[in-house]
Amino acid sequence: MIVIDATSSAPPFEQLRAQLADAVSSGELAPGDRLPTVRRLAEELGVAPGTVARAYRELETAGVIETRGRNGSFVRGGDDPVREQARQAAEAFAQQIRTLHLDADEALALAAAALRSGPAKLV
Description:
Blueprint: H1 12-26, H2 38-45, H3 49-61, E1 65-67, E2 73-75, H4 81-100, H5 104-116
Antiparallel strand pairs: 1-2
């Protein structure tokens, strides 16, 4: 059950986005589950439709849900959306490294340094 806390410092769209993402991660919402329409959920929660629409857009961008036009919004099936985004980022990184003609060891050292502290420093 989604609850919007009016006293929270987090904006309502972020509260909604986080709660839906948690419901997907926990399995409470399964791949293929249809989400309520923007208007219906906005009415149920007492928020503006734009609030729900923004949360849905951010979830779609993150790969958690997908919108199928007039058919509605659904929980995406397949891999964990966070891992899928990480895989896509890694693939983009690998492609850039190939374009720059760097070897894999140097690229991995740069990535490890960036993950640890920020900009990589070669020795």
